[in-house]
């Protein structure tokens, strides 16, 4: 079975632009989470979705938004990009996003904002 | 709020040496604990996990025991290999009164194993 897939793998944008990142979860998984990993740091939680509903949101500005589609894939949107948004964006999927469940990570999208 | 503290890296060892990476946590609820590994240029892979006190997670020769009394989940391996060189992240999942089982990560520990 395929793992979590993300696209694109790399992206270069300029300040003020908007970006959309995509994620396809493992087949059968209904929960998707997004994390931001700045170089040299651990991943920071951005959003979690389950059955197309937002279940949680991390400490990120409103410029960050996400959604989950009926096929459980997900998109993360970032508006008005800042230099500080440069990071590896990781998507993770799990069966239901419940207690003790393993979250399986994709390879990430590396975003560079110039 | 929840937090995870890992020992500062980088850690450099010779092949076949014993490895310990310390991890302690703070949580408002009763968390599940995880170790993830990140190889250069890749995403995170689950290494092992434990969901209740005194559980021992193990995989590929790595072990960690969930110690509630010391709020710790230290990673150990008896004999490391060059292929173990990577960044290791300790993480917890705690609902904290809500339904969001997000992962809270430590800052990561870079391990380099020399032949």
Q: Describe it for me?
A:
- The complex is a heterodimer of chains A (114) and B (115).
- Chain A is mainly β and 114 residues long.
- Chain A has no helices and 11 strands.
- In chain A, a hairpin with a 6-residue loop joins strand 4 (31-37) and strand 5.
- The termini of chain A are far apart.
- The model of chain A has no long low-confidence stretch (mean pLDDT 95).
- Chain B has 115 residues and is an all-beta fold.
- Chain B is 0% helix and 50% strand.
- In chain B, strands 2, 5, 6, 10, 11 and 12 form a 6-stranded mixed sheet that branches.
- In chain B, a hairpin with a 2-residue loop joins strand 7 (56-59) and strand 8 (62-65).
- The termini of chain B are far apart.
- The mean pLDDT of chain B is 92.
- Chains A and B meet through strand 5 and strand 10 of A and strand 5, strand 6, strand 10 and strand 11 of B.
Give the SSE map.
The complex is a heterodimer of chains A (114) and B (115).
Chain A: E1 5-7, E2 10-13, E3 19-24, E4 31-37, E5 44-50, E6 53-57, E7 64-68, E8 74-78, E9 87-94, E10 104-105, E11 109-113
Parallel strand pairs in A: 2-11
Antiparallel strand pairs in A: 1-3, 3-8, 4-5, 4-9, 5-6, 7-8, 9-10, 9-11
Chain B: E1 3-6, E2 11-14, E3 19-21, E4 23-26, E5 32-38, E6 44-50, E7 56-59, E8 62-65, E9 75-77, E10 86-93, E11 103-105, E12 109-114
Parallel strand pairs in B: 2-12
Antiparallel strand pairs in B: 1-4, 3-9, 5-6, 5-10, 7-8, 8-9, 10-11, 10-12
């Amino acid at each position: 079975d395929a793992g979590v897939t993300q696209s694109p793998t790399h992206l270069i944008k300029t300040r003020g632009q908007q970006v959309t990142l995509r994620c396809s979860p493992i087949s059968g998984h209904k929960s998707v989470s997004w994390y931001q990993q700045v170089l040299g740091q651990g991943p920071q939680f951005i959003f979690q979705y389950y059955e197309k509903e937002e279940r949680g949101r991390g400490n990120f500005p409103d410029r960050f938004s996400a959604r989950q589609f009926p096929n459980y894939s997900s998109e993360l949107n970032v508006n008005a990009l800042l230099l500080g948004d440069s990071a590896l964006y990781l998507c993770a999927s799990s069966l239901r996003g419940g207690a003790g469940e393993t979250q399986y990570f994709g390879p990430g999208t590396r975003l560079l904002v110039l | 709020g929840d937090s995870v503290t890992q020992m500062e890296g980088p850690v450099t060892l010779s092949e076949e040496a014993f490895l310990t990476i310390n991890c302690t946590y703070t949580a408002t609820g009763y968390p599940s604990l995880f170790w993830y590994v990140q190889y250069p240029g890749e995403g995170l892979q689950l290494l092992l996990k434990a969901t209740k006190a005194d559980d021992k997670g193990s995989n590929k020769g790595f072990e960690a025991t969930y110690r509630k009394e010391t709020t710790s989940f230290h990673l150990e391996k008896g004999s490391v290999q060059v292929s173990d060189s990577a960044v290791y992240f300790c993480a917890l999942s705690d609902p904290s009164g809500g339904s969001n089982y997000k992962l809270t990560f430590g800052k990561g520990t870079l391990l380099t194993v020399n032949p």
